Iron transporter
Amino acid sequence: MPDLARPLALALALALALTGCGADVSSEKGQGDDARPSDGHYPVTVENCGEKKTFDSAPRRVVTNDVGITEIMFALGLEDHMAGYVMPDDKGDLATVPWKDGYRKTEWLSKDRINKELVLDARADLVFAGWNYGFNEGEGFTPDALRRLGIDSYLLTESCRNGQGEARGVMAPLDALYTDLRNLGRVFDVEDRAESLIRKFRRQVAEAQAGALRGADRPRVFLYDGGEDKPFTSGAYAGPHDIITKAGGDHVMKDLKDSWTTVGWETVVDRDPEVIVINDYGDVPAEQKRKFLMTYKPLADVSAIRNDRIVVLDYVDLVESPRNPAAISSLAEELRSFGGQEG
């Protein structure tokens, strides 16, 4: 990625104009006579991907990257704290989602990649993104790069690196969602709202589990994101792991200590999934992915293909997002409809 076109002096001026505050950014509650004294909530410190981050006030101009991250903010009712969001336009119908008002009230800054110039133009005081959810060393867009511009960052917990190269994931996927809700509840002083959401989501998951398949009836499930030479799939630390297992399935890639990663087709054949879940997004529609799976000769004897047991879920259902609990309920119903394992 090329360097910013604007002069360094402009970048510094914009950085100094930011109003939010994180570990390295100073901020005020307000301006002039409107400044309010601290209510005792701040400063607050949260741990994010192993780093302690302190906020002296709630960020006011947050830029989010990707649909799941954006909807975490919307679920917490934080539209008024956002400068806007960045995401492609391949994330489904946003007019019918539970947080459609958030999309209506918040500016869609770009359908392309997030970058330093964009967040400077938005006068962002915090960027909520993640490794491979916007942050990428190869393009020079990292928390460290933003820090040098005076902009703070919060990393999606699903994307935390675990110290094994660039492998991601430090906790169970639903725990990652609850961690981010709880952390952001503290950062933005909406802790009651965050805890209410967590209780609601836990109940929703428990209800789905109560009716899910158990024991020998649990089908082996493989998540197919895409790829023909090699499949891109999910390991133990991406959303599909908890979605599959809590919906009554046995995740065939549960031994992969990573979030989203590539495996070989021979591994898929060897583990013989009885159900395949397709991640629906991007330039290749779900029906095209399905056609490929059904006609790819090395998979011909795989149980899911022989019995035509393929389920489609949306991208935002499967990445960390407030739609994860509903996805568990939906998948549990699909798995029950298959009647457990074949005889």
